[in-house]
């Protein structure tokens, strides 16, 4: 497994979501363009159509990373699908302001067709599949043959699929879902996530033969890489000129 570096540092933005971000020259927009560029370099010698985004523990900002990264990639003209695979505590429907009555869980059990996705008006190249009803057996659904079939179809119809998942340490879902992805981004919160949690999460991904693309440091300030042992797991920050703290989301 590649123990890649952190590829961007989200910094403070005054409004969450689309407002103030689209076409922005703000530090947060620039940070995500850096992340997008590094993912493009990572895809030079390998297929990188499905990207899983997770974190060691809850509330470290993974879903925010999914939202902004999807918007940033879609602005290049690529057809992007956001898939909310956090079948335990979903939030992406709230971030995008769309309903969640039906979604991924319905698709997996055969209770809905492929039209459950939502295409976003402000981002014509960006579509979202929410979780739908929360199932009692989330890891089994993510590891099912129907889920694999769904991912195969998404690979055919979209340029990039970005999948949110539950945190790694509290549940097995992220490790199961990593087998569906070409690469994994691990989101940690600077100054909050313990290095032992990061190492444990990496070990679990390594045992699952996942391809770790890198670590994204959320809520990072200048000098935050002093907190993380960069020699051990390669975390570093790519900072805008005047980095500020950013709000962490789930």
TrEMBL record:
EC number: 2.7.10.2
Region (Disordered): 1-20
GO MF annotation terms: ATP binding; identical protein binding; non-membrane spanning protein tyrosine kinase activity
Pfam families, sorted: ParA (PF10609)
Catalytic reaction(s) noted: L-tyrosyl-[protein] + ATP = O-phospho-L-tyrosyl-[protein] + ADP + H(+)
Any one annotated GO CC term: plasma membrane
Alphabetically ordered keywords of this record: ATP-binding, Kinase, Nucleotide-binding, Transferase, Tyrosine-protein kinase
Highest taxon above the source species: Bacteria
SUPFAM superfamilies: P-loop containing nucleoside triphosphate hydrolases
InterPro entries attached to this UniProt entry: Bact_polysacc_biosynth/exp, P-loop_NTPase, Wzc-like_C, YlxH/NBP35
NCBIfam families in the record: eps_fam (TIGR01007)
Matches recorded under PANTHER family: FERRIC ENTEROBACTIN TRANSPORT PROTEIN FEPE (PTHR32309:SF13), TYROSINE-PROTEIN KINASE (PTHR32309)
Family (UniProt): Belongs to the etk/wzc family.
Protein name: Polysaccharide biosynthesis tyrosine autokinase
């Amino acid at each position: 497994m590649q123990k890649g570096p952190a590829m961007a540092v989200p910094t403070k933005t005054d409004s969450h979501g689309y407002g103030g971000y689209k076409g922005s020259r703000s530090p947060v927009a620039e940070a995500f363009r850096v992340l997008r560029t590094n993912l493009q370099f990572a895809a030079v010698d390998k297929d990188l159509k499905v990207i899983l985004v997770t974190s060691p523990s809850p509330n470290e900002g993974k879903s925010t990373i999914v939202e902004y990264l999807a918007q940033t990639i879609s602005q290049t003209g690529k057809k992007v699908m956001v898939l909310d695979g956090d079948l335990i505590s979903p939030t992406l429907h709230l971030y995008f302001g769309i309903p969640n009555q039906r979604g991924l869980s319905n698709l997996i059990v055969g209770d809905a067709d492929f039209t459950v996705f939502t295409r976003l008006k402000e981002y014509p190249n960006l579509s979202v599949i929410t979780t739908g009803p929360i199932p009692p057996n989330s890891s089994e659904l993510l590891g099912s043959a129907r889920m694999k079939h769904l991912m195969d179809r998404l690979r055919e119809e979209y340029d990039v699929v970005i999948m949110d998942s539950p945190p790694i340490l509290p549940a097995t879902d992220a490790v199961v879902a990593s087998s569906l992805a070409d690469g994994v981004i691990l989101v940690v919160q600077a100054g909050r996530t313990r290095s032992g949690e990061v190492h444990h999460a990496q070990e679990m991904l390594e045992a699952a033969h996942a391809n770790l693309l890198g670590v994204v440091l959320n809520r990072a300030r200048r000098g935050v890489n002093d907190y993380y042992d960069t020699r051990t797991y390669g975390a570093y920050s790519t900072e805008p000129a005047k980095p500020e703290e950013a709000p962490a989301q789930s």
